[in-house]
Amino acid sequence: MLFDPTTEAGARIQKRLQNDKIIWMTTVAADGTPQPNPVWFLWDCESFLFYSQPNARRLKNIARNPRVSLNLEAGAWGDDVVVITGEARLDPAAPLWHQFPGVAEKYQEGAEMLGQTLEQLASAYTVAYRVYPQRIRGS
Questions:
Q1: Domain-located, residue 111
Q2: What is the chain's pLDDT, residue by residue, as a tens digit (139 residues)?
Q3: Overall domain count for the chain
Q4: Domain residues for 74?
Q5: Is 24 helix (H, G, I), strand (E, B) or coil?
Q6: Which residues contact 34 (CB under 8 A, 6 or more apart)?
Protein backbone atom coordinates (compact mmCIF):
# COMPACT_ATOMS: atom_id res chain seq x y z
CA MET A 1 0.00 0.00 0.00
CA LEU A 2 1.21 3.51 -0.77
CA PHE A 3 0.34 4.88 2.67
CA ASP A 4 0.39 3.50 6.19
CA PRO A 5 -3.17 3.41 7.61
CA THR A 6 -1.75 3.03 11.14
CA THR A 7 -0.43 6.61 11.07
CA GLU A 8 -2.65 9.62 11.69
CA ALA A 9 -2.29 10.89 8.10
CA GLY A 10 -2.71 7.39 6.64
CA ALA A 11 -5.82 6.70 8.72
CA ARG A 12 -7.34 10.00 7.54
CA ILE A 13 -6.59 9.13 3.90
CA GLN A 14 -8.03 5.61 4.32
CA LYS A 15 -11.21 6.98 5.90
CA ARG A 16 -11.68 9.50 3.10
CA LEU A 17 -11.11 6.88 0.39
CA GLN A 18 -13.74 4.66 2.01
CA ASN A 19 -16.30 7.40 2.74
CA ASP A 20 -15.97 10.26 0.23
CA LYS A 21 -18.54 9.95 -2.55
CA ILE A 22 -16.76 11.92 -5.27
CA ILE A 23 -13.20 11.89 -6.54
CA TRP A 24 -11.94 14.07 -9.38
CA MET A 25 -10.32 12.06 -12.16
CA THR A 26 -8.12 13.90 -14.61
CA THR A 27 -7.33 12.29 -17.95
CA VAL A 28 -5.50 13.94 -20.85
CA ALA A 29 -7.21 14.77 -24.16
CA ALA A 30 -5.55 14.13 -27.53
CA ASP A 31 -4.38 17.75 -27.68
CA GLY A 32 -2.76 17.47 -24.21
CA THR A 33 -5.47 19.38 -22.34
CA PRO A 34 -6.19 18.03 -18.82
CA GLN A 35 -9.79 16.81 -18.52
CA PRO A 36 -10.96 16.71 -14.86
CA ASN A 37 -14.31 15.07 -14.10
CA PRO A 38 -16.05 14.23 -10.81
CA VAL A 39 -16.76 10.48 -10.59
CA TRP A 40 -18.18 7.95 -8.15
CA PHE A 41 -15.65 5.37 -7.02
CA LEU A 42 -14.89 2.40 -4.81
CA TRP A 43 -11.53 1.83 -3.10
CA ASP A 44 -10.51 -1.74 -2.23
CA CYS A 45 -7.12 -0.90 -0.63
CA GLU A 46 -5.33 -1.84 -3.87
CA SER A 47 -7.16 -0.05 -6.67
CA PHE A 48 -10.00 2.33 -7.45
CA LEU A 49 -12.98 0.90 -9.30
CA PHE A 50 -15.00 3.10 -11.65
CA TYR A 51 -17.84 2.54 -14.07
CA SER A 52 -18.38 4.65 -17.16
CA GLN A 53 -20.82 5.11 -19.97
CA PRO A 54 -19.31 3.38 -23.01
CA ASN A 55 -19.13 6.58 -25.07
CA ALA A 56 -17.47 8.72 -22.37
CA ARG A 57 -14.53 10.75 -23.62
CA ARG A 58 -12.47 9.67 -20.61
CA LEU A 59 -12.36 6.12 -22.00
CA LYS A 60 -10.83 7.40 -25.24
CA ASN A 61 -8.36 9.47 -23.23
CA ILE A 62 -7.40 6.45 -21.12
CA ALA A 63 -6.98 4.24 -24.19
CA ARG A 64 -4.54 6.80 -25.58
CA ASN A 65 -2.80 7.58 -22.28
CA PRO A 66 -3.61 5.45 -19.20
CA ARG A 67 -1.84 7.83 -16.77
CA VAL A 68 -4.44 9.62 -14.62
CA SER A 69 -4.65 11.79 -11.54
CA LEU A 70 -7.26 11.39 -8.80
CA ASN A 71 -8.01 14.18 -6.32
CA LEU A 72 -10.33 14.32 -3.33
CA GLU A 73 -11.87 17.65 -2.43
CA ALA A 74 -9.53 19.63 -0.17
CA GLY A 75 -10.73 21.24 3.05
CA ALA A 76 -12.05 24.78 2.95
CA TRP A 77 -8.49 26.08 3.39
CA GLY A 78 -6.74 23.41 1.34
CA ASP A 79 -5.80 21.59 4.51
CA ASP A 80 -6.97 18.06 3.64
CA VAL A 81 -5.34 17.29 0.30
CA VAL A 82 -5.28 13.78 -1.20
CA VAL A 83 -3.76 13.45 -4.69
CA ILE A 84 -3.14 10.09 -6.33
CA THR A 85 -1.44 9.35 -9.63
CA GLY A 86 -1.71 6.01 -11.31
CA GLU A 87 -2.58 3.95 -14.34
CA ALA A 88 -6.09 3.12 -15.53
CA ARG A 89 -6.99 -0.25 -17.06
CA LEU A 90 -10.26 -1.75 -18.25
CA ASP A 91 -11.67 -4.48 -16.00
CA PRO A 92 -13.97 -6.67 -18.11
CA ALA A 93 -14.27 -9.21 -15.25
CA ALA A 94 -15.88 -6.75 -12.82
CA PRO A 95 -19.50 -7.45 -11.87
CA LEU A 96 -22.26 -5.07 -12.90
CA TRP A 97 -21.94 -1.81 -11.03
CA HIS A 98 -24.99 -2.18 -8.78
CA GLN A 99 -23.90 -5.72 -7.81
CA PHE A 100 -20.49 -4.69 -6.55
CA PRO A 101 -20.18 -4.94 -2.74
CA GLY A 102 -20.53 -1.55 -1.07
CA VAL A 103 -22.22 0.30 -3.95
CA ALA A 104 -25.70 0.33 -2.42
CA GLU A 105 -24.46 1.60 0.95
CA LYS A 106 -22.35 4.31 -0.61
CA TYR A 107 -24.49 5.50 -3.54
CA GLN A 108 -28.15 4.62 -2.94
CA GLU A 109 -28.91 8.16 -1.76
CA GLY A 110 -27.10 9.68 -4.75
CA ALA A 111 -29.07 7.52 -7.18
CA GLU A 112 -32.32 8.58 -5.54
CA MET A 113 -31.28 12.25 -5.77
CA LEU A 114 -30.81 11.69 -9.51
CA GLY A 115 -34.28 10.15 -9.71
CA GLN A 116 -32.91 6.72 -10.66
CA THR A 117 -32.37 3.31 -9.16
CA LEU A 118 -28.95 1.73 -8.89
CA GLU A 119 -30.05 -0.75 -11.55
CA GLN A 120 -30.95 2.07 -13.95
CA LEU A 121 -27.57 3.69 -13.44
CA ALA A 122 -25.84 0.33 -13.91
CA SER A 123 -27.55 -0.10 -17.27
CA ALA A 124 -25.97 3.17 -18.46
CA TYR A 125 -22.57 2.83 -16.76
CA THR A 126 -21.45 -0.50 -18.19
CA VAL A 127 -17.69 -0.15 -18.66
CA ALA A 128 -15.63 -1.04 -15.61
CA TYR A 129 -12.08 0.15 -15.19
CA ARG A 130 -9.62 0.39 -12.36
CA VAL A 131 -6.94 2.86 -11.44
CA TYR A 132 -3.87 1.32 -9.85
CA PRO A 133 -2.18 3.99 -7.72
CA GLN A 134 1.54 4.55 -8.09
CA ARG A 135 1.96 7.66 -5.90
CA ILE A 136 -0.13 9.32 -3.26
CA ARG A 137 0.32 12.48 -1.30
CA GLY A 138 -1.82 14.01 1.37
CA SER A 139 -1.69 16.77 3.91
A1: no
A2: 688 888 888 889 999 999 999 999 999 999 999 999 999 999 998 999 999 999 999 999 999 999 999 999 887 777 788 999 999 999 999 988 888 788 888 999 999 999 999 899 989 999 999 999 999 987 6
A3: 1
A4: 8-94+127-138
A5: strand
A6: 26, 27, 28
